[in-house]
Amino acid sequence: MNGEKMRFRMPNAPVKEMRRFVAMISILIITTGCAGNYELIKAASSSARHDVFQEIAPGAAPVPGYADLRINSTLKTHHPGMYSAKDIHGTTDYKIILNIDGQAAGLYAHLRGENIDCGAFNDPEAVEGIRYHFSKSIRIKAGTHRVIIAIPADGLVVEREITLPEGSCNSLTLEPVYRSAPAQRRPGFYGATSFTEGLKGLRLILNGKLL
């Protein structure tokens, strides 16, 4: 070796393959790193009660002693099977679970393919993927309630307490928080996020105010 130190170099990989590798690692971290959430997600996904709320048609007239709540969320995921055959992102098996005071229900989902021009580099939902629209309208007794929102496929669970006045019509919006995009950490792209990297959280907004 003539005293020369050996140098090891990583093979040059296409940016797309590197991004896919990083995204896959992120998903593994989500899957294995959320063991602490597992029991709460499991509990949130099953009903211990069935008398807390009832589903109603959107826009139904208020009833004395009760409050109405419409839950909405729109988010984007990668195509199904992108990282493994068991990956349910981009399929009808990908769900958002609502649990209020022990009663659980899934939100209704409408999904479709969507491709946003990647030239919009500040848009975390740019490029091709699957767009979801989740919704549900319920009627519940006026007062304070414990709300749990869970996305089992992402190992996500969020708990909040909400207070709904009698006769009120309320809106609860679930906004996705995507993970950062490592391949875009360069001047002008600092802090960029992308749905292709997966979800890291949810923002719950009740009647326009962050909970």
Terminal CA distance reads 63 Å
| Beta-strand content estimate | 35-45%
Largest β-sheet summary: 7 strands, mixed
Radius of gyration equals 21 Å
The count of helical stretches stands at 2
| Share in helix | 10-25%
Order of helices and strands: HHEEEEEEEEEEE
**Residue-averaged pLDDT:** 83
Describe it for me?
- Residues 1-16 and 21-33 have low confidence and may be disordered.
- The N and C termini lie far apart (63 Å).
- The chain has helices at 15-33, 35-44; strands spanning 53-55, 66-77, 97-100, 103-106, 108-116, 127-141, 143-151, 156-164, 169-178, 199-206, 209-210.
- The protein has 211 residues and is mainly beta.
- Strand 10 (199-206) and strand 11 form a beta hairpin.
- The protein has one domain.
- The radius of gyration is 21 Å and the shape is globular.
- It is built from two helices and eleven strands, in the order ααβββββββββββ.
